[in-house]
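Box 4.2: Ligand-aware structure prediction
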Amino acid sequence: MAIPQQWQGRLRLPVVAAPMFLVSFPQMVMTTCKNGVVGTFPSLNQRSAEGFDDWLFEIEEGLDPAVDAPYGVNLIVNRNNPRVEEDLQVCKKHQVPLIITSLGAISELVDEVHGWGGLVFHDVTTRRHAEKAIEAGVDGLILVSAGAGGHAGRINPFAFVPEIRAMFDGTLLLGGCIGDGRGLAAARALGVDMGYIGTRFINTQEAAAPDEFKDMIIAAGSTDVIYTDAISGVHGNFLKPSIVAAGLDPENLPPGGGKYKTGHERRAPEGEERKAWKNIWSAGQGVANITDVPTIGELVDRFEREYTAARGAA
Ligand SMILES: Cc1cc2nc3c(=O)[nH]c(=O)nc-3n(C[C@H](O)[C@H](O)[C@H](O)COP(=O)(O)O)c2cc1C
């Protein structure tokens, strides 16, 4: 149970700011890393592998690996993502310190990342997927629990964390509704090494989300988030008011079809009626406790104060 050795001394908080489609871009990643938190983004936020390559040059130039927190790239490992091999080769060229894989945990990919000294964290929503990822040799497991933003799981963290901790000695992370330092301290007390935080970071000045999205998060309570497969093909959490604004009835959504849509499919064609992620916004139940849009620096300062106080009180 540990935070990776090579990251020691570079983190102010045991936190990975989770990759978010159409929200996390290089500027946000660099600001996050400079504030002592691991910054990440999905490679598919860039429309082409060439553009992705340029982004990695920009991030490398902007960060000092001796002092700044490491950065990570999220790869969606699925046959519906035609970019995965090409993006992996770009990551290899830049020796990206952390690869976060979603969907497929593949030992060849893990070996390739280890070959350049990188780490692989894999996100899972079930015990079976955790077992497969452990077999593939991943360094970290991200438990995406009930209520998380994006393609969340259904398992309560009080059940999920100890279940997986008992079978895994690597770095364990928890995703789902961590919104302040007390939540982070609670996750650590439960047995994880790091928090994996998405929704809270949407409401920062640096996040590329539109202002209407940030305002909707501030206005939303936990029951304004619905878990449905109708928007992106597989189950995820979405803001009910954004579904209504897109002209759909949240109580009568069309069936999802069970086919995962990668970034390309999620983006195109322009004008498609559902417009998942662009007009229909994903967020976790943690929206209930978000009331502002601080800078990332202010957010990390606040988290650090709360986390220190909560640990002292525990
Ligand atoms: C708007 C949004 C977009 C997301 N896009 C991705 C993505 O492209 N790839 C991915 O692995 N996870 C994605 N996620 C999930 C997050 O990486 C993370 O698992 C989740 O946000 C953690 O839960 P929390 O939002 O409750 O903090 C997304 C989440 C949100 C809210």
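In the box above, the bound molecule is flavin mononucleotide. The mean pLDDT is 93.
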